[in-house]
Structure formats: structure tokens, C-alpha cells
Input
Amino acid sequence: MNMLERGQEAQPLAERPLSVSAAFEGSEEIAVARALARSFLGEVQAAGAVEVGAGAVDVVQLVVSELVTNARKHATGPFLLTLKARNEAVEVTVWDAEPRLPMPRPADPGRVGQHGLEIVMALCRSFAIHREPVGKRITATVGLTDPLGDETGR
Output
């Protein structure tokens, strides 16, 4: 995957956002989705468009893992993962064909499991769920320079 053409000068992400998309069909591909995120952030860093903080790679991979796992667990059929870097952040978007929207649960330290959306919402600058003509689209935005700084959390 090479998202920056040879000879092209680095430009701010606001002027030339970088993105990558991949369609997935099986649960074994969750690790592939995380690897795609890691590789994509390496390309963003190499493009010189923005400094990618050490924690950003871990946070983006966690968000990808949680959203992809939910798509595999609760939706039938394939799903689409899109990563778009712009304005010193990366948007992680997962589309699937399941029309039911996920319902984030209130925090409950006594509950075992089912904390995925709660974790994603706590780590991201923004989190949105949209109905689509077919299925739904979930988008979470993670800061690339300081993913766990003051700007995060909801």
C-alpha cells in the first residue's frame, strides 16, 4: 500500500487527506484490519503530513479492533473499513449491512464484557453512528499527535 505518489511533496492533511479502504468477510480478518491500520499510520508518518504519536498507533488499532469485532459479531455479510487521515486525526469508519444500531451502555464496572463501544467513545475525539440506505456506518475520530490528551473523551 502506497498512498503517496513518488515525487509528490508532503502537504498538510487538510489539503490532501490520505485514506485507505478494505472489505472484509471473515472473523479471521480482524488481525488483518489491525495490521492495515498500523501500516496506514506508517504511510501517514512517512508522507510527513503529520507526526504520528506513539500512543496513536495503539489507540487506532484498538478502535479498529473493537469496531471490526462488533461488525463481525452483530452483522451478517461483509463489512467495509475505511481509514482517513486529516487535520492531525484519523477517522476510522466501519460500514456493515446490519440495520440495527448499537446502543452504548452506561458505564458499569461490575459488568463482564460488552465494554467495546464504551472504550471507543472514551478514547476518541468524536464518535458517530449513521443509518445508511443499507445498514449503518460508525465513525470514530482519533487524534494522531496526542490521542489521550485533553481533546479526547466524550
The first helix runs from residue 30 to 47.
